[in-house]
Amino acid sequence: MRVHECFEMLADRQPAAPAIIADGVTFSYADLDGRANTLARALLAQGVTTEEAVGVLTERSQSLPMAFLAILKAGGAYVPMGADLPPQRLANMATQSGMRRLIALDGLQPPAELLAALASNARDATPAILRPEETNRETLAGDSHRPNQPGKTTDLVAILFTSGSTGQPQGVLLQHDACINMGYGHISSQNIVPNDRLLTAAAPGFILGFRELCLPLLAGAALVPASRALLDDPTGLLDAMSRHRVTVAMFTPS
Q1: 251 pLDDT band (50/70/90 cuts)?
Q2: Under a CB-based contact definition with an 8 Å cutoff, are residues 13 and 106 in contact?
Q3: Rounded to the nearest 10 degrees, how much is the dihedral formed by the CA atoms of 136, 35, 51, 103?
Q4: Are 78 and 97 in contact (CB under 8 A)?
Q5: Which residues, in sequence order, are bridge partners of residue 55?
Q6: What's the whole-number average pLDDT of the chain?
Q7: Is the pLDDT of residue 254 over 90?
Q8: 147 contacts: CB under 8 Å, gap ≥ 6
Q9: Which of 56, 97, 108, 114 lies in disulfide reach of 90, CB 3.0 to 4.6 Å?
Q10: Rounded Cα gap, residues 52 and 55, in angstroms
């Protein structure tokens, strides 16, 4: 079973359970599944192929789980790209992964360097930039049925890039089976259950950020996204954690 199939099993079992909880909005497992299906079909309409790297330009967005699941449902490999990273680093990530398509969340504008790298990978074609807010409104007439793309548990689920502190950042390839083993191992050791609410606070491209994204979706728990501004406001962060009844939060010592 692949990562998104584990999520789909939970969505069928607990469709009304909260999947994403943020100020003023809550998405159920059924909501998240349907939105991810629509975006996955948009990716497939663009010609995404099995294990193709698809970037997600994001801050700490409540739409990130949808983009992550959509890429997997379409058969692609998720590449998180923090919008606060230097443009040349983003371009380097695109070049190394051979990326031709990018999902831009929350109206973010890709820097020129990243667009140039995408165009080069696409052999000078216009880079394929997908914006979920436009896709859900104008594309596919709201088709939210699951694509059910074939694939193997050994297919790529994600490409995460190292910090580059000892040289040029390198892409680390993660398979579905390894991701599931990692996820269920943490779920078991930390006793995460469907009633839990996990704060997602780490940088999206950091391994901790990837773990924060996967654990709730594999455990049937809810994600509570924290913005960069909120993380810089300890009092506000504690208030938000209390208001949303966060039960699990993971922070680096710094």
Answers
A1: confident
A2: no
A3: 40
A4: no
A5: 79, 102
A6: 91
A7: no
A8: 37, 40, 41, 44, 73, 74
A9: 114
A10: 10
- The closest alpha carbon to 197, from 254, 240, 157, belongs to 240
Helices (H), the chain: 3-13, 29-46, 64-73, 87-97, 112-121, 132-138, 176-189, 207-219, 228-231, 234-243
Q: How many CB atoms lie within 10 A of CB 195?
A: 13
**pLDDT tens, 201-232?**
888 888 889 999 999 999 999 999 998 888 88
**Among 247, 159, 219, residue whose Cα is nearest residue 3:** 219
H or E stretch at 27: strand 25-28
- Output the pLDDT for position 170: 87
Structure tokens at 86: 């230097």
Within 13 A of 126's CA, how many CA atoms are on the CB side?
A: 3
pLDDT digits (tens, 9 = 90+) for 131-174: 988 765 545 455 678 998 999 999 999 999 987 666 678 899 99
**Residue 248 has which token pair?**
């699990």
Q: What is the pLDDT of residue 27?
A: 96
Q: If you compute the radius of gyration of the chain from its CA atoms, what whole number of angstroms results? A: 17
In angstroms, the CA 231 to CA 237 distance is 6
In eight-state DSSP terms, residue 248 is B
